[in-house]
Amino acid sequence: MKTIGYAAHSADAKLVPYHFERRELRLNDVAIDIRYCGVCHSDLHTVNGDWGPQPYPVVPGHEIVGVVSAVGPEVKHYKVGDRVAVGCMVDSCQECDQCHNHEEQYCRNGMTPTYGAPDRLSGEITQGGYSKHIVVREEFVLRIPDSLDLSRSAPILCAGITTFSPLRTWNVGEGTRVGVIGLGGLGHMAVKLAAAMGAEVTVISRSTKKEAEAKASGARGLLASTDQAAMQAAANTFDLIIDTVPVKHDLNLYVPLLDVDGTLVIVGQIGPMEEPMTMPLVFGRRRVAGSLIGGIAETQEVLDFCAEHQIYPECQMIKMDEINDAFEHLAQGDFAHRIVIDMASLSVD
Ligand code: NAP
Ligand code: ZN
């Protein structure tokens, strides 16, 4: 199937239109007309080569929503016209303990990311959602609940699940004191989801500039990490902190904010960190942990949770050819919401 996307052809290059083919349907494949795709900071890290050399050209995009256009003969759960979604993974071994435990993101044999990785059968490089069409095996296709507006749902597929999963893992509920470092795409979803679970949420941001957006998303307040007096006053006041900062940073600033037995979960920076100080960990039995997206079943759970609670990401719609400008703002951490590409703005011809 011929399609078009926007691809980076080298590190730090601008994204440009790119014609390519999607594979012929395998027995258990679902073909999807992509309607909207969210813009994750991981897309930017990947095309910039922050995570190592990439198999260019790379078509990024892993917050994909659309409509089924065709199905392979053995597809059981989807039919033409269904509203569906694809997140950060398109395959895994399906045989190891992690896959059996519905945690395909931790597949022992390595899950297949939605873009920039070899397909398990053909070796062809996967290409993501900044495009008109995608073909994905049924097991990695999610259903958009009827009561969710497709145009506002795409960021649930990465920003949503990546923050939902640690909130669930660390049993966030009524009255849990949750801090969210960085009010961007992931951060604002963390606030909305934690607030819906009954938590008392505080945004920890570089300045007070995003205070109104923090409160609009459901936070009780905003703590500026640059305000030393406020940071000291907030020591020992959090049960869980979700850290979405996308660059190398100093955890020592944030760990003392945790109460005894509190946990700081890194979901942002993947790579080296500043040297951690052990004292605040030891004196307070505090923990630093990490978390990667979430499994397919849990991704369906967050979609259903958002439908039930009518939680929507704040989406700023752009046209496909506005992506390079959006990347520049994303690099600065300007947004307190998610950029979403309207694929109607991209034509196959
Ligand atoms: P984003 O929209 O750019 O948000 C990141 C936020 O971090 C910014 O809005 C900003 O918030 C803060 N920030 C930015 N630069 C900073 C700096 N130099 N120092 C301190 N804070 C800074 O990015 P995103 O899409 O939410 O993604 C965040 C990170 O999560 C990325 O690194 C991405 O690759 C990663 N990620 C991980 C997973 C996973 O599975 N673990 C999944 C998806 C994404 P303030 O203005 O409020 O400070
Ligand atoms: Zn992402």
UniProtKB/TrEMBL annotation:
<dbReference type="InterPro" id="IPR020843">
    <property type="entry name" value="ER"/>
</dbReference>
<dbReference type="InterPro" id="IPR013154">
    <property type="entry name" value="ADH-like_N"/>
</dbReference>
<dbReference type="Pfam" id="PF00107">
    <property type="entry name" value="ADH_zinc_N"/>
</dbReference>
<protein>
    <submittedName>
        <fullName>Alcohol dehydrogenase GroES domain protein</fullName>
    </submittedName>
</protein>
<dbReference type="InterPro" id="IPR047109">
    <property type="entry name" value="CAD-like"/>
</dbReference>
<dbReference type="InterPro" id="IPR036291">
    <property type="entry name" value="NAD(P)-bd_dom_sf"/>
</dbReference>
<dbReference type="GO" id="GO:0008270">
    <property type="term" value="F:zinc ion binding"/>
</dbReference>
<keyword id="KW-0560">Oxidoreductase</keyword>
<feature type="domain" description="Enoyl reductase (ER)">
    <location>
        <begin position="8"/>
        <end position="341"/>
    </location>
</feature>
<comment type="similarity">
    <text>Belongs to the zinc-containing alcohol dehydrogenase family.</text>
</comment>
<dbReference type="GO" id="GO:0008106">
    <property type="term" value="F:alcohol dehydrogenase (NADP+) activity"/>
</dbReference>
<keyword id="KW-0479">Metal-binding</keyword>
<dbReference type="InterPro" id="IPR002328">
    <property type="entry name" value="ADH_Zn_CS"/>
</dbReference>
<dbReference type="InterPro" id="IPR013149">
    <property type="entry name" value="ADH-like_C"/>
</dbReference>
<keyword id="KW-0862">Zinc</keyword>
<dbReference type="InterPro" id="IPR011032">
    <property type="entry name" value="GroES-like_sf"/>
</dbReference>
<dbReference type="Pfam" id="PF08240">
    <property type="entry name" value="ADH_N"/>
</dbReference>
